[in-house]
Amino acid sequence: MKKSILVAGATGNLGIRICRELIKRRAEVSAIVRPSADPVKVEALTKMDVKVIRVDMNNIDEIAKACKGINTVVSALAGLADVIVDLQKKVVDAAIQAGVPRFIPSDFCTDYNDLVPGENRNFDLRREFKAYLDSTSIKASSVFNGAFADILKYNIPILNLKDRSIGYWGEKADWKLDFTTMDDTAGFAAEVALDDDAPRDLQIASFQISPNMILAEVNKASDQAFEIHQLSSMEDFAASIKKQRADNPAGENELYAKFQQGQYMYSMFTSQNNELANKRYKGLSWTSGSEYIQSFVK
């Protein structure tokens, strides 16, 4: 019998990929969207055979009606407190009201469980929602994918294509960073959604790669040499992030404020996925670091 999965946040970059992977696995897929959802994105979901249900996201009863008969609700929602905490609470409350047995929260990020509270605003929001989720009766599974590999294309300090440089903090030139492509994350998340026995937390990574390893890969892929350098100590990096945050109060209302970008990179150099669940599901293929870097470095 086909399983029925409902996705919240299905019009986002990750959400639409999760829907696609679920359809490939012959699941019956529904998506709840706001009445104002982008019609182009809604059409893309419909063409994929996803049942799109427009609901008032502030109305728990409406969401619960969409959740009737659903086996697992997957949240790929992105935002600040009003989404990650407030809206996800409404979605999980609605799922419980409808008798849904399982919930996958929007924890697609570094595993924040052992990180220090207060060091990353967005992780603190997820931590707050997790405390609420774990106080309910619904069974939950979080997928921790490290950083999305796409960020390597955006001229971040770890890999700056314009400057042809690789940067690192502290004495961590050989520290392995966790990266997962969106497609790999979506495929794994689909498997978890269909797996009634999935554990509470699952760590994955398409590839784990250090700054020195990135240097070797980009120099192999490019006809121009890249250089590697230490950006600062970890202590100075943490201090600069705190100052940046204090100097920009408006950034508190920005999803990807400059200080938040620094917090994400700081977390990458303080946390590692050491218990990968990559082999839990047969048939999944994982993008290698070499393959990924060679796809965009010229």
Secondary structure topology:
Blueprint: E1 4-8, H1 13-24, E2 28-33, H2 39-47, E3 51-54, H3 60-67, E4 72-75, H4 81-97, E5 102-104, H5 121-133, E6 139-140, E7 142-144, E8 147-148, E9 165-169, E10 177-180, H6 182-193, E11 201-203, E12 207-209, H7 211-221, E13 227-232, H8 234-247, H9 258-268, H10 289-294
Parallel strand pairs: 1-2, 1-4, 2-3, 4-5, 5-6, 7-11, 8-10, 9-13
Antiparallel strand pairs: 10-12
Helix pairs in contact: 1-6, 3-4, 4-5, 8-9
Overall radius of gyration: 20 Å
User: Could you give the order of the helices and strands?
Assistant: EHEHEHEHEHEEEEEHEEHEHHH
Structural class: alpha/beta
pLDDT averaged over residues: 97
Strand order of the largest sheet: 3-2-1-4-5-6
CATH architecture of the largest domain: 3-Layer(aba) Sandwich
Shape: globular
Beta fraction of the residues? 15-25%
Low-confidence stretches: none
Which features would summarize this protein structure in a list?
Rossmann fold; 2 domains; alpha/beta; 6-stranded parallel sheet; 10 helices; 3-stranded mixed sheet; 298 residues; UDP-galactose 4-epimerase, domain 1
Structural write-up:
There is one protein chain. This protein is α/β, with parallel strands linked by helices and 298 residues long. The chain has 10 helices and 13 strands. The protein has helices at 13-24, 39-47, 60-67, 81-97, 121-133, 182-193, 211-221, 234-247, 258-268, 289-294, and strands at 4-8, 28-33, 51-54, 72-75, 102-104, 139-140, 142-144, 147-148, 165-169, 177-180, 201-203, 207-209, 227-232. Helix 4 (81-97) packs parallel to helix 5. The longest helix is centred in the N-terminal third of the chain and has 17 residues, at 81-97. The model has no long low-confidence stretch (mean pLDDT 97).
